[in-house]
Specification:
Number of strands: 12
Radius of gyration: 18 Å
Mean pLDDT: 95
Low-confidence stretches: none
Shape: globular
Order of helices and strands: EHEEHEEEEHHHEEEEE
Strand order of the largest sheet: 1-2-3-7-6-5-4
Number of helices: 5
CATH topology of the largest domain: BirA Bifunctional Protein, domain 2
Bound molecules: biotin
Distance between the termini: 46 Å
Largest sheet: 7 strands, mixed
């Protein structure tokens, strides 16, 4: 593990090491006390209060995984984090497809996986993870949208102990992935999915509809059933809405 007191983004730091071909053992973790330019999915910024949360990246080399199966890596990481956090937070901790961590209807953390490919094989997977741990105050724009372990548990959580727990669960799921247990992994991912089998509102193609998430296909498509018909959605093709 490399601990940095401050960095722009642990994903950037790890990526530049990989692209400079610096020798790194698989499983290296880069952890930062503070990220001043943390990145989220879809070009968003990931803000956290210095010293209170987990912001780290793990270096993996899933060269055994066909690129067409890359969503499986996302499933393995998501299940690992979910299982580790559920030890603290119980079954209300869910993965919101594709890879947000939710407690009730509030976001507790997120994952940003960046794949570095060499031709048609994986050179590296940069697994960036941000968890709101001991932060109590959030931007008013995030009121009722973001939460932290401190808010839920009413006590501080030791960051290094939590990190060790998360990494050991991710390692367990990664080894399952390596052994080819795709179906089991997919079933584990789906069973702890946010809104699974619940009738909720969604929007796609400017149309709002009521539907039920029933599954996630191996390629990572979200399957929603509405009026008796199941449809598959790719990332960004469907938005989760709150019921009025
Ligand atoms: C999201 O948008 O939900 C994903 C957030 C991922 C944030 C983590 S924090 C550690 C790593 N470094 C980054 O710059 N981003 C990820």
């Amino acid at each position: 593990m490399i601990r940095l007191s401050e960095v722009d983004s642990t994903n950037n730091f790890l990526k530049s090491k990989v692209s400079n071909s610096e020798p790194l053992p698989e499983g290296t973790v880069i952890m930062a006390g503070h990220q001043f330019a943390g990145r989220g999915q879809q070009e968003n910024t990931w803000f956290t209060e210095p010293g209170l949360n987990l912001t780290f990246s793990i270096y993996l080399c899933p060269s055994f995984l066909p690129i067409s199966e890359q969503f499986m890596l996302n499933m393995a990481v998501s299940v690992g984090i979910r299982d580790a956090l559920a030890k603290f937070l119980g079954p209300l901790l869910k993965v919101k497809w594709p890879n947000d961590l939710y407690y009730n209807d509030q976001k507790l953390g997120g994952i940003l996986i960046e794949n570095i490919l060499s031709g048609i094989t994986y050179k590296a997977g940069i697994i960036g993870i941000g968890i709101n741990v001991n932060q109590l105050n959030f931007d008013p724009a995030l009121l009722n949208k973001a939460t932290s372990m401190r808010k839920i548990l009413q006590r501080d959580v030791n960051l290094l102990e939590l990190l060790a727990e998360i990494c050991s669960h991710i390692e367990g799921q990664y080894l399952k992935l390596k052994s080819g247990a795709f179906n089991k992994l997919q079933a584990d991912y789906v069973k702890g999915l946010y809104r699974l089998n619940e009738k909720k509102l969604y929007r796609s193609n400017n149309e709002t509809f009521e539907g039920v998430i029933t599954n996630v296909a191996a390629g990572g498509f979200l399957i929603i059933e509405s009026e008796g018909i199941e449809k598959q959605y790719n990332f960004k093709e469907v938005e989760f809405l709150n019921n009025i």
